[in-house]
Structure formats: C-alpha cells, structure tokens
Model the fold of this input.
Amino acid sequence: MTLLITDADFDGIVSAMLLRYYESSLSEIDFTQIRFAHPTDIQKKCFQVNEAFVIADLPYLEGAKMWFDHHKNNFFETDVSGRRSVADSCASVIADYYGIDDHAKLISETDRIDSGRFSREDILNPSGCMLLSLLIGSDHDFNRHVISLLKEYDIDSMMKDEQISLKILDYKTNLSAVCDYFYRHIQVKDNVIILDMRDTEESIYLDSAWKFLHYAMHPECNVSVRIYHPNLDRSKTKFQFGCSILNSTYTGNLAELAGKYDGGGHPRAAGFTIGSQRGCEIYDYVIAELIRPTTDGV
Ligand SMILES: [Mn+2]
Done:
C-alpha cells in the first residue's frame, strides 16, 4: 500500500493532486491514504515511514521511496527517486518531473501563493485560489475533498461546491470577529507585530486562515511573533515567528533565534515552545532580538 505525506497547505494539496493522478504507484490509492503533516512534525519524526511512502513539500524521512521538495534548506545528497529543485512551489517541481502541462493556471497560482507574492488586498478580500488556500489546514477530510475536486473542476466551479461554500461562509463569518480580536491583542513595537494570545483559550485565532491577517493590518512592520499556550493546562508557551509577506525588509535569521530555545524552522519562519514561567522571563529579550535594523536602514 502506497501512502502520500504532504504539507497541510495549498501547495501540499496541489502537489497531492498531481501525484495522485500522474504518479502511477499512487493512481489506485483512495484519498484516506493521503496524510498531512507540518515540516516540524517531520523534523520531530512524528511519522514512521517505510518504502511505501511518497513525500511531497516536506523534509525527507529516512526510508520513503520518493521525495519531491522545493525548500533548499531541506535538500541533501541522495539518490531517492523524485525531484528536489529550488522553485516557487513543490507543485511546479512535480509538474516539471512528470511533464504535466494541464493545470498551468493552477500551478502559477500555487507558485504565487506559496512564495507569498500577494497584496494586502489579496489578504483582506481574497478570492479564487487565494481564498481556497486560506481554507486549507487542519481539517484533513476537507483537504482531501479539495484534492479530489482539483483535478476535474476549475476554481470558479469549485467555489460553488457545497462543502467549499460552507467553509467560505464560515471564513467570512469569522473574519470580522478575528479582526476585532487581533486589534485588541496586537501590540506594535518598532518593526515588530506582537500578537499575544496567552489570555485566550479558543484556538480559532490560530487557524491558518488568519496567518497573514496581522501583516495586512500592520504593513509597516516586517516581522511578527505570535505568543500562545499550545496546551489547555497553559504550562507551556509557544513563540511563533514570521517575516511579513507584505514587507520583506527584515534581515534577521528567525531559525537562529528559535534555535536558542531548542526550536527550529526556516530563517523567515520559525518557533519554539518553552515552559510558561521561563517564557515570561525571556519575553523582553526575545522581543528585543526582533527589533533590528532593516535593509533600508529604518
Ligand atoms: Mn511548498
């Protein structure tokens, strides 16, 4: 039995669709055989992998038979089949590998979304692939549903699909409440957006649908930190860093900062989890580390 592990984001979904339909060893799988992971799950080795696995848009796990990726940081010398090459999306690496020339529009939209080439308007008033990408996330059954529709439907007709329409309705209903919450919980210090959610239990504010919203609210800032309790007993605190997709002037290395506290990630997106008491102690230091000169000297 072949299994596919892919990133739980739009690029991961499009990659999964392409592999499901164009990689012969995956053509028979049903959609429950598609699993979703975040890069950090792979780094923490949360998955047991064997030669039945195909990995897309994620770091390699020892034993998998095929691997497709576009993140340079993940690459290493290996003869595992598949392809690793620097590109805007994993979907475009896969399309290249199989010589797929259908879906050109979908792949160029995936390139744009995965490399964060969008405007403030795209975030505040999303439509088409951009809107669809904001609905992809922790609801894995929904992700699988989207994969199954992507091959046949064009984006405009997909938006009329019942499950997708319901998600869009949900998204639009929640948007104003989330904006209101963000306005009350964001503090701006120089170039840094601090979104401190430690007083909040609902996880809705952490949903990937809102992952760019704070950048659109403060386009003058170039980096953000979201601070929250990842578990209900509040014993731990997570610091999640990201560079703004609307302002690319931040020059620091976020993975290095996270690494000081046993965290990880990429230079432009990283995080760590720490005991809550210790989290309070290091708070000022961490924020001060994010306040730094930008490329234009501001
Ligand atoms: Mn990707």
